[in-house]
Amino acid sequence: MSAPAAAAPVLAPLRFGPLTIDSPVVLAPMAGITNRAFRRLCREYGSAGGTGANALYVSEMITSRALVERNELTMKLIEHDPGESPRSTQLYSVDPVTTAAAVRLLVTEDRADHIDLNFGCPVPKVTRRGGGGALPWKKELFRSIVAAAVREAEPYDVPVTVKMRMGIDVDHVTYLDAGRLAEAAGAAAVALHARYVDQAYSGVADWSAIARLKETVRSIPVLGNGDIWSAEDALRLVAESGCDGVVVGRGCLGRPWLFADLANGFAGSPERVTPTLGEVGATLRRHAAYLCDFYEDEAKGCRDIRKHIAWYLKGFPAGSQIRHQLALVNTLADLDALIADLDASAPWPGAPAEGQRGRAGNPRRVALPDGWLDSQELTAEQAALVAEAEDSVSGG
Ligand SMILES: Cc1cc2nc3c(=O)[nH]c(=O)nc-3n(C[C@H](O)[C@H](O)[C@H](O)COP(=O)(O)O)c2cc1C
């Protein structure tokens, strides 16, 4: 009897300059989450699923200024595991000179294989000074930052990609212009979080915008981002938008095995991971151990795992008391004792564990510098204010 034919992959591998990403899946950069420890966990699941294909796991954002100044926390955040390949780092930048210096540091010291630029941050203290999601409105500033990064990275064959939102709000749409500018400036791919800055994480991502970006940016991959909670969502986004790959953020919080599902889904396999509570407990424990290793400090690692507890337990039968105790855990021994109290045989709960997880937030008026929206050109006064925008973001 002949073996069944292997299912055909849904998409071609992603090509970012010299990099080939077999499975067209990117772990979204998430501040406070996608450190070396979490990336390792996601990577282990991603390469175990489907065909053992690789995907791209991006670091949380670091600020270019802090990197150039070799801030201690920042230098820790750009670390990668010895086996991590490709090594991906996201930079937050507000001016071309600091961007160039930060990229130069990463490439000349061989600290990254891929650099992503963040133009989507909605945090008021960032947008108030014209940074993050507010920045692409100033087209020439945006273009010059991307061009500076590409210029420094190109001789080292390190691809630079851009991650952005649709615009500041529905009346100030930026993504099509920004996509064209990034493409012309030499970006290797563009990713769109299909929301406006004023939506924060609320409402529903508008995947039709990803389709429009795909029609506009023709020579480099276009990646879709926003509200992918399952492999089925990812496949639907690709089918609806024609995008070349997906970027997955909140969907993998407390669910790193989503990367196995995504690898399976894109390899054409229907296989999905549906862990028991015992298996979830083991994953949570492994995540905590990786965090302790990352911080080189058990107390810090245990403090960090606390914020993941509710995500891991979503939908499972676990009482409020044990959830509360887990969210206060101080040591790995305490964690072990609490995990042992969970009903290890409880099966994957299905629907209650699916769907949205992580922050949603509320729509809000975007804090911007005075007169920011009056023109897409940067005034001298605004240029000075933007230069301060990096000071307002912590080392992470
Ligand atoms: C906790 C958290 C931290 C985030 N940090 C970053 C970041 O550092 N850089 C960035 O470009 N986007 C950041 N984002 C946005 C995500 O990368 C992603 O674009 C967004 O969550 C939408 O995708 P999703 O619906 O799959 O979560 C963050 C999102 C969350 C929830």
TrEMBL record:
The keyword Transmembrane does not apply. Its cofactor is FMN. Residues 27-335 form the DUS-like FMN-binding domain. This is tRNA dihydrouridine synthase DusB. The keyword Zinc-finger does not apply. InterPro entries: Aldolase_TIM, DUS-like_FMN-bd, DusB-like, tRNA-dHydroUridine_Synthase_C, tRNA_hU_synthase_CS. SUPFAM superfamilies: FMN-linked oxidoreductases. Keywords: Flavoprotein, FMN, NADP, Oxidoreductase, tRNA processing. The gene is dusB. Pfam families: Dus.
